[in-house]
């Protein structure tokens, strides 16, 4: 059996069990093994196939951005899809709940009164960011 992929937030392990005729339909004189992949706390699909997932898209003035640098004090430098470099603030509702790193794709909402600054509204997971790149949105 191939390697098991790891889903978001889950401990993954493989287990081999002996199985009988009730499970496989094999005659009782033939021994068999059943390979199971078990994931505790799993929240996503375990298949290697990539399916299109509906993602959160920009609303209003929001734009896609890539994190270029961590500045500290809950601030990051981002390069927005409109070509502007901005300093973005990570709001309190995301601090210590959503971890943002350099290279992540985020959704930012530029400030109305200061265009070189913005608020982070959403962070995309790696597979979601890959989907955005494949669709040409980022």
Structurally, the number of domains stands at 2
Q: Approximately what portion of the residues adopt beta-strand conformation?
A: 35-45%
Number of H- or I-type helical stretches: 2
H/E element sequence: EHEEEEEEH
Categorize the overall geometry: globular
Give the distance, in angstroms, between the N- and C-terminal Cα atoms: 36 Å
CATH C-level label of the largest domain: Mainly Beta
Q: Structural class of the helix and strand makeup?
A: mainly beta
Uncertain stretches: 4-16, 41-48
Q: Mind telling me the CATH superfamily name of the largest domain?
A: Nucleic acid-binding proteins
Rg for CA atoms: 22 Å
Q: What is the number of beta strands?
A: 7
CATH architecture of the largest domain: Beta Barrel
Q: Report mean pLDDT, rounded to a whole number.
A: 76
Instruction: Say what the CATH topology of the largest domain is.
Output: OB fold (Dihydrolipoamide Acetyltransferase, E2P)
Outline the biggest β-sheet: 5 strands, mixed, barrel
* Helix proportion: under 10%
- Strand arrangement within the widest β-sheet reads 3-4-5-7-6
Q: What is this structure's SSE topology?
A:
Blueprint: E1 11-19, H1 21-24, E2 32-40, E3 63-72, E4 75-80, E5 85-89, E6 105-110, E7 117-123, H2 126-134
Parallel strand pairs: 5-7
Antiparallel strand pairs: 1-2, 3-4, 3-6, 4-5, 6-7
Domain S1-like: 51-125
Keywords: Initiation factor, Protein biosynthesis
Family: Belongs to the eIF-1A family.
